[in-house]
Design a protein that fits this description.
single chain; alpha/beta; 2-enoyl-CoA Hydratase, Chain A, domain 1; 2 domains; 4-stranded mixed beta sheet; 11 helices; 10 strands; 47% helix; 16% strand; binds coenzyme A
Length: 258
């Protein structure tokens, strides 16, 4: 599949999606959001792919936000539609993907860019990364789930301050805030993410899919996370991976998950 604004590569069961609009600091225009939906949909079905890394091209930006030039003249209904479609098509879609998605934040992750990173299952940043939700400086608020996910990750008070001030955090501050799990040198960013992805890829994809559902249920007000955990725990007992994982343990060998 050929993309205009993305580059997708695959190696050793790890797929890397690189957002590739460097002249616009990888800003998310409509076409890029549609391509992201397509790429994640295809990789979710791809039997060769066990983990997905999402990053931005170049060393300056992960994603510098939603493409401001596309919504500057929108009215109230168009604004709401932009947020709703974006959340459905990309941000909620990634969060609920059955395969792990790691954000490799290689520079500016601002507005929709930080929201995109926050929709991923976890985040690794280069020491050059800068993160913030500057929307109120433009007269809007985060619309791709940022008001919800930032508060979930860093707590209500810090989310309020970050959004109200529109200030950026550097990578070390972002780690202190628990917004990112690790900070590494820019040259080390992708190798480091690939190492974690490789570790994940050796585990049961079926169990990981269940874990994603159960953990996400904690943040979904329509669900009881403990009940989802019970159901998903039970479901694991019906999988080939459970048979292989437990048999391998009893036979004192490494599990070989399909
Ligand atoms: N939407 C559309 N275009 C964007 C963009 C965005 N969110 N962020 C950057 N760009 C474009 C710039 O317009 C510029 O394009 P041009 O060369 O055609 O004029 C190009 O990317 C380079 O950006 P520039 O601002 O010249 O780089 P800089 O190094 O001076 O500043 C930033 C970098 C990230 C601080 C600055 O680009 C910025 O503040 N971007 C907007 C961030 C934002 O508010 N995001 C939230 C959107 S809701």
């Amino acid at each position: 599949m050929a993309y205009t604004n993305l580059v997708v590569t695959k190696e050793n069961k790890i797929a890397t999606i690189t957002i590739n609009r460097p002249s616009k600091l990888n800003a998310l225009n409509k076409a890029t959001l549609e391509e992201l939906n397509k790429a994640f949909s295809l990789l979710e079905k791809d039997e060769e792919t066990k983990v997905i890394i999402l990053t931005g091209s170049g060393t300056k930006a992960f994603v510098a936000g939603a493409d401001i030039s596309e919504f500057a003249d929108f009215n109230v209904a168009e604004g709401a539609d932009l947020a709703r479609k974006g959340q459905e098509l990309v941000f909620n879609f990634i969060e609920n993907l059955s395969k792990p998605v790691i954000a490799a934040i290689n520079g500016f992750a601002l507005g929709g860019g930080l929201e995109l990173a926050m929709a991923c299952h976890f985040r690794i940043a280069s020491d050059t990364a800068k993160m913030g939700l500057p929307e109120v400086s433009l007269g809007v608020i985060p619309g791709y789930g940022g008001t919800q996910r930032l508060a979930q990750l860093v707590g209500k008070g810090k989310a309020m301050e970050m959004i109200m001030t529109a200030n950026m955090l550097n990578a070390v501050e972002a780690k202190e805030y628990k917004l990112v799990n690790h900070v590494v040198a820019i040259d080390e960013l992708l190798p480091f993410c690939e190492k974690i992805a490789s570790r994940i890829s050796k585990n049961s994809s079926q169990a990981i899919q269940s874990a994603i559902k159960a953990i996400n249920a904690n943040f979904d007000k329509t669900k009881n996370g403990f009940e989802v955990e019970i159901t998903e725990f039970g479901n694991c007992f019906g999988t080939d991976d459970f048979t292989e994982g437990t048999t391998a343990f009893l036979e004192k060998r490494k599990a070989n998950f399909k």
